[in-house]
Design a protein that fits this description.
About 50% of the residues lie in helices and about 15% in strands. The protein contains twelve helices and eleven strands. Helix 6 runs antiparallel to helix 7.
Length: about 375
C-alpha cells in the first residue's frame, strides 16, 4: 500500500507532466512562424509527432506490462527487476500524460484554423515566410552588434536579398531622388583622436545644391573598422552616397561637386579624386593595371579606371554596400583596407574611376610638408 505522502508525490509528478504548456505551444512553437500557412504546417507537424509518440508509448506500455507478468519466482533478483520494470512503467505513464496534454492542445489549435492548407498553398507561402524570418534575424543582428552575422548574410544571399535589414532602401532612395531631385550624403573623416576643433580637410569643400550633407568624424578606431562603422551609419541614415576623406588629404573646393557629376554620369561606379604619395616622386596613390602590371596612376587630366581606389577623397553610391557582403573593409597582412574593398567591388561588377583633373593636397601629419 502506498503511503499518503507517496500518493501526494505521485499526484504532483503527474500534474507537472507537460514539457510545453499551451502558452509555449501557441506562442513559441506555432505562432513563432510568420505566415498563416507556416503556422498551420507547424501545428500539424507537432500534432503528428505527438500522435505517433502516443501510439508508440501505448504499445511500449503494453509490452512493459507483459514483461512484468512474465517475471516469475520469488528470488531477490527477480523481485528487484520486477520493481525496476514497474518504475519504468510509471515513468512511461507520466510521459504519456504529458504527450496527451500536448496533443489535445495541438488538436484544438488545428481545429481552430479557419483554413486547412494544401501542399501547393504551403509551397507558395515559403518565400514570404523565409524573407520575413531573415529580415527579422538581420535586424536583430544589427540591433545587437551593429553588423549582420555571416549565417544571415548567406541566408539573405540565397533568397536574393541584400545584407542590410531595410531591404527596400534602394527603391526608397530612387523614389526620393526622382521626386525631389535631392540626395543625402554622409562625409566620413576618420581620425586618431576626436576632432574637437573641426575637420580642416573638408572646411573649404563646396557642397552640391540640393544635397543633404552630414559630416561624421570617426575617431579612436582602426582604419578598417572606422570605415565599416561609417558605412553602417550611412545605411542607418538612408544616405545615397558616402564620401571618404582622410584628415591628411585636402581636396580642392570643387572636388565634391565634380565627383558627384562623375558618379551620376557613370552608373555602378565609385569615383575618386587624384592625390600624390607623400614622396618627392609625386606618384599618385591610386593603382592601375598596365600590361598586366600594377602601376601608380599619373595625373594627366583624364578619367581612368583603377585597380585600387584609395580612400583619401572618394565617393561611393550606398547601393554598393547593399550588394557587397560585410565586412566591406579589412586590413590584412597583404592588403590595405582600400585594396580589400576594391577587390570586392570589382567582383560585384562595379567600376572604380579616378578623375585626375580633380586634385587634392597630401600633407605630412608630422612635418606639415605639402605634396601636390
Amino acid at each position: 500500500m502506498k503511503s499518503r505522502i507517496e500518493k501526494q508525490m505521485q499526484q504532483a509528478f503527474n500534474e507537472i507532466q507537460m514539457a510545453r504548456t499551451p502558452y509555449v505551444l501557441k506562442q513559441m512553437v506555432v505562432y513563432s512562424k510568420f505566415t498563416p500557412e507556416q503556422r498551420y504546417a507547424q501545428c500539424v507537424l507537432e500534432m503528428s509527432i505527438a500522435y505517433d509518440n502516443l501510439r508508440i508509448a501505448m504499445c511500449n506500455q503494453e509490452l512493459k506490462q507483459i514483461e512484468i507478468n512474465k517475471m516469475k519466482g520469488k528470488s531477490r533478483t527477480v523481485q528487484l527487476n520486477k520493481k525496476i520494470k514497474q518504475v519504468e512503467l510509471e515513468q512511461l505513464h507520466r510521459a504519456m500524460l504529458g504527450a496527451e496534454r500536448e496533443f489535445d492542445v495541438l488538436f484544438e489549435m488545428w481545429q481552430g484554423f479557419e483554413k486547412k492548407f494544401t501542399r501547393e498553398e504551403l509551397n507558395a507561402a515559403q518565400e514570404e515566410e523565409y524573407t520575413k524570418r531573415l529580415e527579422l534575424q538581420t535586424q536583430q543582428d544589427m540591433n545587437a552588434t551593429g553588423r549582420v552575422s555571416q549565417g544571415n548574410q548567406e541566408g539573405l544571399r540565397q533568397i536574393g536579398k541584400s545584407v542590410y535589414p531595410e531591404l527596400d532602401i534602394i527603391r526608397d532612395t530612387e523614389k526620393r531622388y526622382l521626386e525631389t531631385g535631392k540626395s543625402r550624403l554622409l562625409i566620413a573623416v576618420p581620425t586618431e583622436k576626436q576632432a574637437t576643433e573641426g575637420l580642416k580637410c573638408i572646411e573649404k569643400l563646396n557642397l552640391p545644391i540640393g544635397t543633404e550633407v552630414k559630416v561624421l568624424n570617426v575617431w579612436g578606431r582602426k582604419v578598417d573598422d572606422a570605415y565599416n562603422y561609417a558605412v553602417q551609419e550611412a545605411l542607418k541614415d538612408n544616405a545615397d552616397f558616402i564620401l571618404t576623406v582622410e584628415d591628411d588629404t585636402f581636396p580642392e573646393e570643387s572636388a565634391l561637386i565634380k565627383l558627384m557629376e562623375l558618379i551620376r554620369a557613370n552608373p555602378k561606379t565609385a569615383v575618386g579624386a587624384w592625390y600624390p604619395k607623400k614622396e618627392p616622386t609625386k606618384e599618385g596613390v591610386h593603382i592601375i593595371l598596365k600590361d598586366g602590371k600594377r602601376q601608380q596612376l599619373k595625373a594627366d587630366g583624364e578619367v581612368h579606371e583603377v585597380y585600387t581606389l584609395a580612400m583619401g577623397c572618394s565617393l561611393y553610391p550606398i547601393e554598393m554596400f547593399l550588394k557587397i557582403p560585410y565586412p566591406w573593409f579589412k586590413t590584412t597582412a597583404n592588403l590595405s583596407q582600400d585594396s580589400f574593398f576594391s577587390q570586392l567591388a570589382r567582383e560585384a561588377g562595379y567600376k572604380l574611376l579616378v578623375d585626375t583633373s580633380i586634385k587634392c593636397k597630401h600633407i605630412c601629419r608630422i612635418t606639415g610638408e605639402v605634396f601636390e
